[in-house]
Amino acid sequence: MFSLLAQLTDTSTEATDAAAAAAGATILGGMLIFWIIAGLIGLLFFIWWIILVIDLSKRDFPEKTTWLIVMILGLLLGFLWLADLLYYFMVVKKYGKVGSAPAAPKTQ
Length: 108
Hints:
Elements: H1 2-8, H2 13-58, H3 64-77, H4 80-95
């Protein structure tokens, strides 16, 4: 039985070197694609962060200093995406666009 297994295995170094090179190229290519996509997503969040910081500087609301600290710490600590999402959904959605007039009270 073991003699049959020994005959089936290819012990040449050329075949194993070619397989290792192909596997390494595949892994490297996959990692490269992953990092390119991650870099593009990070760049988009950074551009969005700049837009939101400009919005923060123009907006007048009570928690302005707190949100400025949150945005800066998000940038410095690597949680830029989290600070962006929090600010967007908790401030921009709540208060509306900068410079827009507040909604008039409903009259009956």
